């Protein structure tokens, strides 16, 4: 049975993480003052560099780590790494592949934090409802067709970054026998990371499982999408 947990501060959020043994979950933070300012991350050259750099390190160092992306890093370390990567003066100096100072869980959490810090979700507010609709009904074949057609409606940079993320997640799922991150598990983690409604409502919370389904479809059919691009 799913539960919705409300975190009223970052400290409260971290306590929930500890109680849940560090497992990733979905939080509705009611204290907007404690959330990172929207728009601090962008779909620009630095953003693509951050993503590619983190993904390369994850795939080389931790692709078989159990609970990859579900086990979370310490929030202060994650924020420190993200700050270094987002600064053009220090980004190139950060060594994620050879420096064990940065744990894999810190790097995976940085990927999620970057994506969640974008001015709007990667799959956009505008298309959110359109992505959710086919996930609620229709045959598996029609779902795939509609969702792939919607991907092509995304702005070019959004589509390019989504392709990088989904290709990586498909690779992670290919190692599920060791890392235990099946397509379904990745959908739970990345559904609310790549998609969210513009306004937080009860109806929006009810759609969380359909966000997960959309991401699952993208991962499972990534090769077909790449062929049609």
Automatic annotation (TrEMBL):
Listed Pfam families: RhoGAP
Annotated PH domain residues: 1-25
GO biological process, one term: cytoskeleton organization
PROSITE patterns: PH_DOMAIN, RHOGAP
Rho-GAP domain boundaries: 41-226
GO cellular component terms, A-Z: cytosol
Domain of life of the native organism: Eukaryota
GO MF annotation list: GTPase activator activity
The protein, known as: Rho GTPase-activating protein 10
Organism: Ophiophagus hannah (King cobra)
Lineage: Eukaryota, Metazoa, Chordata, Craniata, Vertebrata
Gene giving rise to this polypeptide: ARHGAP10
